[in-house]
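[retry 2/3] T-kininogen 2-like: previous attempt timed out, resubmitting with same input.
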Amino acid sequence: MKLFVVLLFSSQLLHSNARSVSDIDSVDPIPIDCDDPELLKAVDFTLRKFNGERRTTHQYALDRVSFGTVQRKRGSRYFIKFDIQESNCLVESEKTWTECDHRPPTVANIGHCESSVYIHRAGRILEVTMYNCTIIPVNDPWIVPKIAPCLGCAISLPHNSSRAKETLDYSIKKFNSDSNYPNIFGSEVIFKVTSQVVAGYLYTLKFSLRETECTKSSNDVWQDCILKPDNATTRGYKEKKVHVMTYVGAQRKKSGKRKVLRNNGYSYIDKIEMKMNVTGREGGSCN
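[retry 2/3] T-kininogen 2-like: success.
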């Protein structure tokens, strides 16, 4: 009689569990924060199951959770993607992975796991319904560490490049146009120039400024002017960002035909003036 009652209870429990999981299938999964405590509990049970089924070498510990969703109805079903790394605990030890440290990256295998875990706290059900972990050996010849290029990052340009000279020329002309000094300023040296791809190109220059013998009324270009001597000049430095829009092609209709126009010129749009420091004739230094 007792055996019959136990079997009947087990059958009802299994039927209830199957019905709960079936009900969840009708609910759409929703994203969940990767630091959610319940999600991390599901990761914990997946790793305990994975480590428990291993027979040799080291246990694996969590590296990071990269993705998680949950379906909630008569319990919760979690779908998780996470990375793991070999720990310093052997599988024969009585420790759990949470008590272990990662082995050094130079000797540790890594892996990627996906798992589905059903949790029903009221029914005291916690089941890893599916998991799959792919291990990548540390000495795998196919793994070649490589730094990916930063496509949107600023890169240094040669100070004597044509683009640096063109942008410097534009910047000095704009300074001379905007300043209240009666004389034209020129440049002695470019300290730094970088290029960055944005909506067009963003050039950042840091260059010296020095007063010349030419007055603005002379209409001379600054490259043709003689720089004043140190004891009779206003000098300084300037750091400037110049946004350059490059037009490489356009289209328009003419006489019913589409004509392609090509323009390799540059439209300079002054965006940000970062720093400006000009010292008077009494001298001084610019940091």
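[retry 2/3] T-kininogen 2-like: Confidence is low (pLDDT under 50) at residues 1-16, 243-287.
[retry 2/3] clearing retry counter.
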